[in-house]
Amino acid sequence: MAQANGNAPKIKLYTNHRCPWAHRSHIVLKELGLDYEEVIIDLDKPREPWYLEVNPRGLVPTIDFNGSIIAESGIVSTFLADAYPSHLYPASGSPGAALVRARINFFVDTWFSKVGSKLYQIQTASSPEKETLAQQFVDIVAKEIDPLLKDAKPFFGGSEKMTLAEALTAPFVLRAYALTRAGLLPESVVEGFDKLPYFSKWAKEVTKQESVLYVWDEERTMKATKRKIESMKAK
Question: Is the same domain home to 65 and 168?
């Protein structure tokens, strides 16, 4: 069990299991073995005043860490990984550790700056556009992400255990496969993934990890996603 100065930290996580951004924090907490209290925030209705006092933006995740509030998924996850150096993220202080951290940060930045927005675009596109966008999505993964996984064994950078690179991208990789099964993405997305020599092996390993799956409810998440898309199209 990870500990702070010999004492287990007191962590309260404000979250919603359907949210991929909050999912990142769950993965990190599980990988670090940290106990936490969970408070579920209903994302289908306006935030209650008490939660806006915790996080004025009303977003999840937020953590109360020993009385200090930390918000935004990337910041929450990186803070926890920094506070408890592990297989996820090495402690800073040496050129070697700095290089590993830089590589992880570059991988995560590449996913969200080059790839991430395409998932949303495909879901909300009209039928004639979906296949074109799906091919573009796979092409970008092939160009930008697949080469960065060349040395995965099976995880990023040759690691035998999950790293922060996986923790911050796994919720979205998991959903890409689930969205395809639910018919919200064309089957060509997964067919394209399967042809990528490094990404395909990495993604299949990532999406079966306990830390990735323990709060995941595919059926409920996909039903909620379908309702949201239908509501958006009806406007």
Answer: no
